[in-house]
Specification:
Distance between the termini: 43 Å
Number of strands: 17
CATH superfamily of the largest domain: Dihydrodipicolinate Reductase, domain 2
Largest sheet: 9 strands, mixed
Bound molecules: NADPH dihydro-nicotinamide-adenine-dinucleotide phosphate
CATH architecture of the largest domain: 2-Layer Sandwich
Amino acid sequence: MSQIDPHLFVIFGATGDLTKRKLIPALYHLMQDEDVARRCVVLGAARSDWTDERFREAARTALREQGYAEETVDAWCTRNLHYQCLGPEGNDYEGLRERVEQLERHRNLTGNRVFYFSLPPSIYTQAIEGLGAVGLNTSSGWSRVVVEKPFGHDLDSAQRLNERVHQHFDEDQVYRIDHYLGKETVQNLMAFRFGNALFESMWNREHIDRVEITVAEPLGVGGRAGYYDQSGHVRDMVQNHLTQLLSLVAMEPPASMDADAIRDEKVKVLNAVQQPDPRADVALGQYRAGTMGGEPVPGYRDEPDVPADSDTETFAAMRLNVANWRWQGVPFFLRTGKRLPRKLTQIAVRFQSAPVSLFQADGGPCVPRDADCEAAPNELLITLQPDEGFDLRFEVKAPGNSDDGSMPLETQQLSFSYQDAFGPVPDAYETLLRDIIVGDPTLFVRADEVEASWQLYTPLLETDLPVHSYEAGTWGPDAVDRLLPTWTSTGR
Ligand code: NDP
């Protein structure tokens, strides 16, 4: 790990779900490195009237639930975790400042601070202004503020939030999290594209027929209905995660691996994506009751806290065009939803067919674009979840001859599995927290990037579109066929 400065890691929302499930385990894991453990002190904050000991107990329970050994967990919690109540209104920032300074004195810290907002998005502005009001935005060391998704709910709110943040923090102090970017396989997209001349030389409209990005999950809305029903799937998944994947697949090679060089290219390609025509290029859906894994599951409207007449989409598919020299004319299809048949995050790149196929029964050449030829196009499947790896599909001659005298072809694949090559991959939050601590913003979303992304989906979010019903456990509503009847990843 790069150089770790001594620092205080303040978690706002320390009593919440994300802290328990992701932040505490990621911090614990990072601090298995004794160097980090000595240099990082964690201060949880929230409205609940908890003590240090109550916070430690919650952390111990969370870590034990994830299978960590009791003794090391106990010692770590006692040594590294503290808690400060922000009062019933969550506005006691003066008390927070005093505690921060006291801890820094006692633990010989030098004024380096992370402020992690694991808060309801409606509280982000209050927290930013609270920090600014008591001077916690400046210190004798560095200060970094980490903002969880969602960053705004449309272009206007994202711009206003950026303005507020920039009143108190410079852009290079702000780390906007999209945890997809912390996944090894997402980062590997860059290694794959820019470390291998083989594929990059074909990564354009001359050779690629279409790109499909699928993010499917079998789960329903769970306990998040209060937030989700207001937000919907385009805001919850497309604007951030799928758009990040799109920009990594479509961006130009950066001049260097410098954070801004990479983020400049991501913004550039996002600015080249044309706004989809909501009626022609988009299909939305909402799951109804169905059967999954042999068990009946309720429809979205029957989930707890979802209004019985909700029109919120739990599925979105769309066709996007990247209007630049590399991609003009190559459709990018995005598809994501809840209660789909299985967990799958995959980018499927379909290459153009051979210009002429020689393998028909009559021996005659067949032009793939005009006819149903024997030779299938090459496909590259980049799987991010659940079995991270690549599969490259190509045609081979099957042994023997066909009865009709044609050469029998069969699709085979070359495969690479991340797990087989490297063993278990680190959790995305661990990667991202480490980057925050060492001050590497490469995997975080810059202000202009978040705004470019909201800009792209504004017409869609402002259009009253039909939300088609689909049965839980299927690949979405029939309306998707209008965009793309057969998806490479799943055949539907
Ligand atoms: P929770 O509702 O579980 O937790 C919210 C936390 O914020 C609680 O600790 C709550 O504690 C605190 N809080 C609420 N209001 C205030 C206030 N006015 N002042 C100070 N603290 C307050 O939410 P999650 O942990 O699930 O999510 C947190 C953030 O992370 C959200 O922005 C969410 O979108 C994002 N996120 C969450 C994911 C997850 O898996 N949970 C995944 C990706 C993103 P108290 O009531 O004690 O004040």
